[in-house]
Amino acid sequence: MTEEIPSQNSIWHNFFRKRSEETGSLEALLSKVPIFSQLSEREVRRVASIVHKREYSAGEFVFKQGDPGLGMYVVEAGRVGIVLTEPDEEEKELATLSSGDFFGELSLLDQSPRSASALARTHSTIIGFFRPDLIDLLNRSPKSGTKILFKLGEVIGTRLRITNEQLGQVSAELDSRLNNKGGRRNANRQP
Question: How far apart are CA 70 and CA 164, in angstroms?
Fold first, then answer.
């Protein structure tokens, strides 16, 4: 059973861009991704020349929870679900991403195991930008690489703040529920 959490409440939601169904070149798509948004047209063309494009069939994994993190992905076309498999094997859909949305960016900084799976929900075209690509770009063009790293830090910081807010809300709700349950139990007790 898959439980879906609306993407507008999710840290996976691309909150940096305005929704647009415009289609265009790879460079146009990349320039709308926050991590590449500070790059000049020339720098975006350089990034476009080193990214990896792949098509995925509906039901095919882009990566699985626990796989080593190799890089980030941008959805060019189609829909991708971010799915968390819990210890009891139940799956929860954290977000459904579409054209222009991105995921996996933390893997540009480290190669820790993936915390969730990415699964193509429809036939999808996905762009990969991998850690070795970023390291090579940093060596060849430190200015471009630094721009990407600063925006990457901003994206991760923003997502961390959103996660902290959501965790605070869940914690407050849980405390409230526990206090209400305890209050009712205590009210029903005889002295």
Answer: 25
CATH code at position 31 = 2.60.120.10
Q: Tokens at residue 135, please?
A: 């390291």
Cβ atoms of 15 and 158 within 8 Å: the answer is yes
- Span 129-180, pLDDT tens digits: 999 999 999 999 999 999 999 999 999 999 899 989 988 988 898 888 888 8
Strand ranges in the chain using DSSP code E only, listed in sequence order = 2-4, 52-56, 61-63, 71-77, 80-85, 91-97, 102-103, 117-120, 124-130
As for how many domains the chain has, the answer is 1
H helix or E strand, kind and range, residue 27: helix 26-32
pLDDT in tens, 44-88: 999 999 999 999 999 999 999 999 999 999 999 999 999 998 888
Tell me if 174 is assigned to some domain. no
Inside any domain, residue 17: yes
Residue 94 belongs to what domain range?
2-159
- Does 186 fall in a domain? no
What is this structure's pTM? Answer: 0.76
